[in-house]
Each structure stands twice: as structure tokens, then as C-alpha cells.
Amino acid sequence: MARKPRQISQSGFYHLMCRGVNKKKLFHRAEDYEYFKDLLLEYTRKLGISIFHYCFMTNHIHLLLHADEIKALSMLGHFIQRRYAYYYCKTHAWSEQVFRGRFLSIPIERDSYLLECGRYIERNPLEAALATEPGGYPYSSYPYYAMSQADPLLTENPLYVSMGNSRRERMAAYRFYVTQPRDNEIHINATL
Asked: What is the mean predicted confidence (pLDDT) over 122-127?
């Protein structure tokens, strides 16, 4: 059966996700996360792709990005997964499949969802009980927006600028925006 073609976003924004095969860990140590981040930096620059938010969980990744062409997005996913799988097998003495399959990309058509998707991505460590607050998880874009930590991988979310008149105001507003739980999130967590 042939694969379905990727949905093309008219805005060029996508929420990209990929997972380890059988929910297997993709990252075992800090060097794994850094290698993956370096690959992303290399290929986003080569392909003209901008990353606005990210979170590298132990067994999956989330990216909010902008790609002008679907071909560049497909190339990014292909090269990142292929190169990281090679690194993973060599580094961790693994000889089987690393990723569950090709990456998933969800088009984002509403500008209003850009910040909300970033919030969802950066709250993943909380939902997985890997951290008690977003700033306690080192492998996400949260420190860039909430604590002004330099991150060469990121392009600033255009909606972030509207959160305050100064960087300090924006950081405070962003911290509040991301850290405040919502009723539906509390309800979801309570039922799991």
C-alpha cells in the first residue's frame, strides 16, 4: 500500500513528531540529545527551515517549525532520522530499527495556534512526569523563551513578541502562560 502524501500547510508551519520503535528510548545520555540537536541545526540551516519550539523526550520528539516547501520538510525528516539512527546503532550497539516509521507532520494553519502548540510541546515533560516544572527539563525550547537562555536552534515565535514590551515582560508572561495548568489538562491527568 502506498503512503498517503503529506498534507501541505498553506502557512508553512508544522508540528512534527517522531517516536522510537515500540516506544523505545531514543536518548540515553546527554551526548545523544546534543548530537540530535546538532543534526537539527545542521539540516535546518541547509534546508532553510526555522524551528520555533522543540522538546526532545526520551522516546519521541516534538518540533514546531516553518518550511517554505514540503520537499524541504521531507528531506529534514529523512536526513535527521537516517543520520541519528546510524549514530544510535553505532553508539549503543543496536542493530535493529530505531524509529517507528517516518515522522508525522501536522499542518498549522491558524497563527493563533503557534503559541498554543509551543505550550503543548514544552509541557510534555510535565505530562510524562520527567519534570515538575518546564524549566526543570533541559531538552526543550522553554529556557529560551522563559529564561532568555541562548539557543542557536531557535527562531523566535512571532507571537512571543506580542506578550510584552520588553524581554523581561515577555519572559514573565510566557512563564505564566506555560506553567499555569488548565482545567481540561487537570481533568485529563486525573483520568490517566
From this structure: 94
**In degrees to the nearest 10, what's the CA dihedral of 22, 6, 114, 183?**
-50
DSSP assignments along 124-150, one per residue: HHHHTTS-SSGGG-SSBSHHHHHH---
**How far is Cα 135 from Cα 146, in angstroms, rounded to an integer?**
8
Distances from the Cα of 37 to the Cαs of 77, 99, 168, 181, in angstroms?
13, 16, 27, 28
Q: Which long-range contacts (CB under 8 A, 24 or more apart) does 66-73 make?
A: 66/11, 66/12, 66/13, 66/14, 66/155, 67/12, 67/14, 68/12, 70/6, 70/8, 72/47, 72/48, 73/6, 73/14, 73/16, 73/49, 73/105
What backbone phi and psi angles, to 5 degrees, belong to 16? Answer: -105, 135
Grid cell for residue 33 = 540529545
Is-above-0.85 flag for pTM?
yes
pLDDT at res. 186: 44
Please provide the distance, in angstroms rounded to a whole number, between the alpha carbons at the two ends of the chain. Answer: 35
Residue 105, helix vs strand vs coil? strand
Least Cα distance to 142 among 165, 168, 171, 107 occurs for 171
The span from the CA of 30 to the CA of 35, in Å, is 9
- With beta carbons less than 8 A apart as the criterion, state whether 12 and 105 touch: no
Residue 26's nearest CA partner among 79, 122, 91 is 91
Cell of 88: 544510535
In angstroms, the CA 155 to CA 46 distance is: 15
